[in-house]
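Notes from hallway chat w/ T.B., transcribed later so I don't forget. T.B. wanted the structure written out for a chain they're using in a teaching module, and asked if we could keep both sequence and structure tokens in one place. Agreed to drop them here.
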Amino acid sequence: MRIIILSLVFLLAFGFYLERSDWFNSSKQAVNHNVVPTEMLNYGPMGKTLKQLGLIMAIPNDNTLYTESQKDSINLDTNIFQKKRKVGKYLYTVIPNSWKEMPSSKIIKPKDLKKGWSVISIVIDEEDLYDEKKGIIPNYGGRGNEWERLSYFSYYENKELKFASAAGLRLHGGYSRRFGRNFRVYFRKEYGINQFTPGIIYDSKNKPIKRLVIHFDFPQSKPFTSCLAFDISREIGCEVPDAKPVIFYLNGESKKNYYMTIHLGRKQWSYLLGHDHFLFYQYRGNPDTETLRVFKELENWANNHKTPMTLKEAAKRVNIENLTRNLISYAFCGTEDWKQGAAILNMKSPEPKWYWVNWDMDRSFWHQSRPKEGEKRIPHWKKPVFELILNPLNKNVRSVLCKRLLEESPEYKNYFVRSFTDILNHRLNASYLNSRVNYYRKLAIIFWKRNRKSIKEMVQFVKNRPSYVRKKLQERFDLGKIFLCQVKGPDKIKYKIDSYPEKTGYKGYYFEGMDINITIENSKGKKFSHWLVNGKKAEGKDLSYKIKSKTIIEPVFLKMGND
């Protein structure tokens, strides 16, 4: 009996001491704030079940238990990481309702945000990044769910917090993985939200974004290379993933020269198409057996030189417009490493045809290697054009198809030349190209005030590349002289020129003998009379004129009150 009484007194005394100890005080505060120490959730069926159900998540909290070494680098009062900005141990808790309470938001300071820029902040336990055993960077060869780590993601646009969530983080890329520069972000229900809020990052509000890629823009001395190449490709009419330059903070450390895109993967593409009934052949991936078999059939057919290649037959298997514009984009941008991306066959389409998606265009515009000894480096805007996409040694099926069609189908040759000419006149005109370069110049001035050289080179490229490409088009296909054609007239008149929307003041360059086709779409209440072509009258509201010299075209309208 005496032993029992002494035991009870001891327990009461120990409990009284324990309740007032620092360790118990932290735990008590944690419980009051709906949090519990990590140890309580790592063991026991309840903790494991809660973690598996995704009902609890890991976030830094004011009640976090830090080691002595961690206290030196973490401000315990504000939970914002100081100069070293190391991320400490986590407690598990329900994700905060407020985006501003996310670790990835709390670590960002006002000076980190730049006007006009998008900013991504990711916070992740540094052990998950750098630990020799479990860190994703030292183990860069690891792939799949096993090498996905919990992180926190915040997105700012023009200094305003637009989105924040817990998310999965993985390394991204092929050879570049060993440098730990590119990352892939996964939004899942287990982390609290299963997609990036539609309409925030990109214009489309109907395409779920569940996987984002944060790319290092190569080369480092040439910011915006990939984004400009994607801009140009999209304007040409290619299938291109949305892309945007970002300021990237990883655990509070600024990473320069980054851009973000949606992930080019089968899973993400199924979200975009709205179904899963398609074949997805990724050039740097591992296609499934059926995709590999069907794509191999396309390659075998393309390489069967016993049967003449006709436009009609090719059009049964591939989207000719997409194929053509895809190759034109690489030719114009001077993309050296263009055998990437994906080929897709949408089986739900009434007439399934292979089409291609542009991807990884960082080897565009600039020379990637030094000239050989004794050779003089040519200007970057004189990079090869057709040698890149139509090299006889190139066995890529796109190149094979295009080469054979150009050689064996006069119909396709005319289509290719006309398409390239129209793209240069109506899509990649000076107005568009200058607007994109000016946009990136403004971003560079805000964030990289000392890095102006690459912007100047970018200006030179877009200024000189169109005329150089047009000259190479003329030489390769033995075309006639190049003539300028201008369309004048009253302001605010809207036209369709060669089926593209244009307005008064249009300037285009045409090869001798090529037609220009003009229709007035909106005359602003003016009544059309006739055309003047180089001062000579031409009847008919729709004009089709064969270019033979420098040409000036002007519509003439009746004066008010005249019939």
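Follow-up for T.B.: The chain has three domains: 24-262, 275-476, 482-557. Might be a good example for the class.
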